[in-house]
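Our collaborator T.R. sent over the components below with a one-line note: 'Predict the complex.' Nothing else. No constraints on interfaces, no templates requested, no preferences about which chain binds where. So this is a plain run: every listed entity goes in together, and whatever single assembly comes back becomes the starting point for the next discussion.
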Amino acid sequence: MALAYDGAIQRLIDSFASLPGIGPKGAQRIAFYLLSAPDEESDRLVEAIREVKDKVMFCEVCGNVCEASPCTICSDPRRDRTTICVVEEPKDVMSIERTREYRGLYHVLGGAINPMANIGPSDLNIAGLLKRLDNDEVKEIIVALNPNIEGEATTTYLGRLLLPLDLKVTRLASGLPVGGDLEYADEITLSRALAGRRAV
Amino acid sequence: MALAYDGAIQRLIDSFASLPGIGPKGAQRIAFYLLSAPDEESDRLVEAIREVKDKVMFCEVCGNVCEASPCTICSDPRRDRTTICVVEEPKDVMSIERTREYRGLYHVLGGAINPMANIGPSDLNIAGLLKRLDNDEVKEIIVALNPNIEGEATTTYLGRLLLPLDLKVTRLASGLPVGGDLEYADEITLSRALAGRRAV
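Returned assembly:
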């Protein structure tokens, strides 16, 4: 009795199911979709995977992903070089860029301190950050990590580490998300919003 | 201001986002996962896609996917050749195989009648089914289509089409899903379960 698909299809389903956020049913759906899709579509996917693995590298300055190091942001003369925004992952750079409010530079740590997953400060790109602070150009570090336990721990660690330097170190405001509902805000978020209240 | 990623990463995100069930955030997550994954993992995915496109074909008898036609089920001498179970898609064959209750053959229509999507009987593999009924070997057709409007329409169509032939034509039972809750069953399912009630 055939309880798994013929070799090639099952291997494709397994490959997709091993990607984050895709379960066995979703992987099966994608495999059959690709099977029936025109060759150009599967070729485009294959080519995109190959291209990313061949071309994409990490910027030697900020640690962001790029196709030429230093990256387009680090080498852009119009960016404000006195401010560095520290984030966990390359995708966080994109989130902040989308606000169109920030004109400074970035530094990508590559994660956050997480003792449960055995990730300590030495596993993050913190040495690279300190090296960038060697000259006196940088005036402010904005720590923009995720508002969870790991992000908080890393923010505290960076705050202490940068304390001796003559720098303004700031963090993103905590509070109610815009468009949110007071009734559904959790207690911690609400008490942070209260503590950080501003004049109208 | 960089509002999209550098070329290669954005192309990979777009390629994944065009697959069914993957949204832009999921595609971004997968792209960064592949970027950091060992080369063997991305190579395995690329190879699996290539292999499926190169090797997998449709069985000339039943229309199921296979690597050699006729497929392993059609060419298995231990299967009961007097019964054909008609399904919409290759994945439905796998669902029925997983019950381990069915020992007959299959026929994959490749979809269901859907006037909204311009899919009529002639777009389905129905001619192939009739051809298989030319000899007198087949005694029963089990119509196992999805219990939705398209599946119902196709079941009705097949029922009428097969009526003149000397065949038992059956369909899957409708009723309460096992492990379900009477309170949450919809009215149509519950009335089908009532109509199809059986002696205890």
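Summary for T.R.: The longest helix of chain A spans residues 39-55.
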